[in-house]
Amino acid sequence: MTKVSISTARSQLDDLVRRVADGGETIGLTAEGHVVALLVPPQVVEDLEDDLAVADYRRRKAEGVLGEGVPHEEVRRLLGLRP
């Protein structure tokens, strides 16, 4: 992970965002030598959210606290898909 001070990042924001968006790079923004924020590609966050949702589902399933599911036919109807 590349680290850049916040003061430097102010003047290089366009370049830093491009590096993250186009190159998939993660950039740590530092204050007083410590990483205080991250610039990360959106896909990284989306993947983490997906992983958390799956882990939560598995935990609830293992605990036996999953609610009633929605029948496949009802999901198709709600989405306006053919039966």
From TrEMBL:
Species in which this protein is naturally found: Streptomyces lincolnensis
Family membership noted in the UniProt record: Belongs to the phD/YefM antitoxin family.
Protein name (record): Antitoxin
Organism domain of life: Bacteria
Function of the molecule: Antitoxin component of a type II toxin-antitoxin (TA) system.
Pfam families, sorted: PhdYeFM_antitox
